Amino acid sequence: MEDVSNQDQAIELLQQLGLKEYEAKSFVALARRQRGTAKDISETSDVPRTRVYDAIRILESKGLVETQHSNPQIFRAVSIDEAVNTLQSEYVDRAESLRSALSGLDPTDEGDSTEATHEVWSISGDQGITSRTRQLIEGATEELILVVGHNSIFTDRLAEQLQSAQEHDVNVIIGTIDEDLQATIQDALPSVEVFVSGLDWLSRSPLPDDDTEISRLLLADREAILVSSFTETRADGREHEQGVFGRGFDNGLVAITRRLMATGLLSVNDPEAEEA
Amino acid sequence: MEDVSNQDQAIELLQQLGLKEYEAKSFVALARRQRGTAKDISETSDVPRTRVYDAIRILESKGLVETQHSNPQIFRAVSIDEAVNTLQSEYVDRAESLRSALSGLDPTDEGDSTEATHEVWSISGDQGITSRTRQLIEGATEELILVVGHNSIFTDRLAEQLQSAQEHDVNVIIGTIDEDLQATIQDALPSVEVFVSGLDWLSRSPLPDDDTEISRLLLADREAILVSSFTETRADGREHEQGVFGRGFDNGLVAITRRLMATGLLSVNDPEAEEA
DNA sequence: CAGCTATTCACTCACTTAATCACAATACTT
DNA sequence: AAGTATTGTGATTAAGTGAGTGAATAGCTG
C-alpha cells in the first residue's frame, strides 16, 4: 500500500523531469520488474499496450531503457542510479549552458538604473523568498533582526548563514513566536540572542477571517526589510508563501518595521517601555 | 548578431528547463534590461503585452523575478547566478526525490531473471550509449579494445575512464580510423597503445548509399561488445547515434566481433597475416 | 470628467498528447 | 499447412495545453 504512493510519486517526478505520462508509467513498470515485454509493461502500468512501444523508444533515446529486438521484444530498465544520474546530469548541463548564454546577453541600454532606495518589491514562492533572505543575510554588516514565524522556515542552511554572519561581527537577534521554537533555535545557535517576540499580532492576526500567518520577518542593518506570510489562497489547498521586500533607510515599509521591531525588542528587554 | 543567437539559445534552454515560451522570453528580456514594465518587456521580447503579466507571475513564483506593485508595475529579474542556481537546484532536488521513490518500489516477482548471456540489446542516443560504455570500461578486468570512429566521442571523461582502467591492470588498446585522431588520443593517453585500424570498412562503408558512420566499437574482456553508429535518419538533419550491446563469450555478436578485431589488430602488427 | 494607459479576463486556434482502432506481421497450435 | 493467438506499426479521434487576440475593467493624467 505504501508502495502505491511511492509509485505514483515516482511517476509524477519523472513527468516533472520532462517525461510524458506514458513514458513515466512505462519506466516505473519496467523498473519494478527489471525486464519485460510490451504486454507485461502494459499490464503493470495501464498504458495501452500499443503505445508502450513509442514510450519505450523515447526512453531508449534518453538512455533509460535498453531493448532486445527479439520477438516479442524485451525491454530492460537501466539501474536506478544510472537513470537518476542520467536525468540529473541532463539538467545540470542545461543549467550550465544557460548560465553562459545569459551571461553573454548584451544589455539593452535603457532601464539599467541602479537599485533605487524606497521601493517595495513583492516576491512569491518559497524559492525566491529563501533566496532573497540569504542575500540580505550575507549582505548585512551591522545587525540582523529575524523573526521566525513558523518552524518550517528555520532550516539548517539558514542556521549556517546566520552563524556565518555572526562570525563576521554582525549582531544577530532572533525572535520567535513561542517557547518551543525559541528553544530549538537557541539550541542550534547558542551564541545568538533568541527571544520570544512581544508582538502579539505576529502569531495571531487581530482580524477575524484572516487565515494568513506570518512566516518570516527580517530587518538587515535597519535599512532593508523582508516580510513574508503564508496564505491559503489556492484551490488545491496547498499553502503559498508571499512576501515583500524593501530597501532604504527612508523606505516607508522599512521605517515602520524598524519602529515595530524596536517596540517588540523593548517590550522584551524592558516590559515597562511597551507603550513607546 | 552573435547575441541574437545567444538570446535564442537562452530562451530555448529555459524552455527545456520547464518554462513556457512566454515565460522564457519575458525572463530573457528582463535579464537584459534589469528592470522594466510590461510594455518594455513586450517590446524587447515580442510577447504580447497582455500576456506578460501571466508569464511574470509564474516567474515570480519560481523565484526568478520580483515585482514592484506600482502603476505601471515594474519587474526585475534576479541575478543570473541566482536564477540558474534556483532552476538547477529545483531539478537536483527532484532527482533526489526520484531516487528514493524508485528505490522504494516493490519489485514484482516475475521477470526478475538474472542477466542472461547471449543476448543483444539495442540502445539509442548519445546519453545511453556513453553510459553503457562507461559501465563496460569500469567492469573490465583484463582487456579493453576500443575503436574510436569519430573524434566527437573521445571526451575527456572517456580518457579518464580509460586511464583509470589501465591503472587497474587492464590492457587498453585503442584503434582509430585516421592518423589525426590517433595523434590526439595518443597525446591524451601516452601509456596506451593507439593504432590506426587496419579495417577499411570501419571508415568507409563498402556499400553505396550507406550514410552511416561507425561511432564506437568496444570489446571488453573479449566477452562483451558495444557497437554504435551515427545515422542521419532524422528529418531535422540532426544525426542520431544508435548502438547494440551484447554480452557472453559465446554470444554471436561478440564472437564475430572478436574475430574481426583480431584481424584488425593482426593486420596492423603483422601486415602479412591480413588474410587470416 | 474625458481620454489615455495599464491590467485582467475570456475566448479562439493550433498543436501536442492521450486513447482507441484497424491491420499487418510473426509466432504458436493442432 | 491452416488457423488462431499474439505482437508490432500506423492511422484516427478525442482531450488537453499553450499561443495568440480582443474585449472589458481599473487606474491614472490632465
From TrEMBL, chains A, B:
Residues 14-80 form the Transcription regulator TrmB N-terminal domain. InterPro entries: TrmB-like, Tscrpt_reg_TrmB_N, WH-like_DNA-bd_sf, WH_DNA-bd_sf. This is Sugar-specific transcriptional regulator TrmB. It comes from Halobellus clavatus. Signal peptide: none annotated. SUPFAM superfamilies: Winged helix' DNA-binding domain (SSF46785). It comes from the Archaea. PANTHER family: HTH-TYPE TRANSCRIPTIONAL REGULATOR TRMBL2.
